[in-house]
Amino acid sequence: MKTNFRNLKSGEIINKTILFKDGKIVSIKTSDVKQSFFYNEKGLLDMTVKDKEGSNWKEVINYSYNKQDQIVKFIKKYEEGGELVTKTVLIAYDGSRVRATSKKSNIQQTFIEDIEYIVENGIVIRRSSRDRNKQIINKIEYVYYKDNITRHKGLIGDKTIRNFIFDDKNSVELLIAQNTFGPQYKVIVPVISFHEEEFDLESISNNNEVSFNSTSTQDIATNRKYKYNALNYPISCSIIEDNGIVKTEIAYLYE
Prior knowledge:
Layout: E1 2-4, E2 13-21, E3 24-30, E4 33-39, E5 45-52, E6 58-65, E7 71-80, E8 83-94, E9 97-104, E10 113-120, E11 123-130, E12 136-145, E13 148-156, E14 161-166, H1 172-181, H2 185-192, E15 209-214, E16 222-228, E17 234-241, E18 247-251
Antiparallel strand pairs: 1-2, 1-18, 2-3, 3-4, 4-5, 5-6, 6-7, 7-8, 8-9, 9-10, 10-11, 11-12, 12-13, 13-14, 14-15, 15-16, 16-17, 17-18
Helix pairs in contact: 1-2
C-alpha cells in the first residue's frame, strides 16, 4: 500500500506492508513503525506489539476471550503526553446486548466510555453511548444490504448519515477479519474498531467498498477502483479522496 499526500505528483509517501502466514497477519509495517501479531492456542488474536525503528517507543495490545470465543477484554498500553497509559475495555454480554466500558489509568473516573451494542441475527445493528447518569447521548443505527454495512445513521446526538456502496466481488478484509478473530468476528470487529485502527467496522462486509460519502462536512468522500483476479478477489485498488489531497494505491498478492 502506498499513500501519497498533498498532491498526486509529489509529497510524503507512506508505505504499508502486511505479511501473512497460514492466512493470519504476522506483521504490519508502516514506514518505520512495525506491528507484530501473536495468536493464542485457538488461533485467535492474543496480542499485538507496535514499535518504531531507532526508538524505545512501544504500544502493546492484549485481547482476552471467553469459552464461546467472544472478546471480553481489550487492554492497550501506550504513551500519552509523555506518560505511560493503560486503557482497559471490558466487554459484557447480556442476551442481545453487548456493553463495552473503558477506563484509562491516568484518569480517576470510573469509566471514560460506556457503549452498548445491540446484536440481531449475529450482527451489530445499533451502537449507543451513555453518560454517567446512564442517559443515552449518542445512538447510531447500522443498515445492511447483502451482508454489507451500507449506512451509519445517527439517531441521537450526532445525526450524521454515512453511506457506503460495495461491489459484488470477494473481500480480502473479510478474510482477514475471519482469520484473526474466528467465528465471532462480526461482533468483535465492530467493538474493537473504535480502539484499534487496523480493523475497520466495514471489514466485516462480504464485498469491497467502492465509495463513501457523508452528510458531515468533516468527513471526506472517497472513491475506489479495483482490478480482480479469476477468483473475483482484488489484485489492486486505487483510493482517491474527493478533496484531491490523498491517493492510495493497494496491491494484493496471493499464495
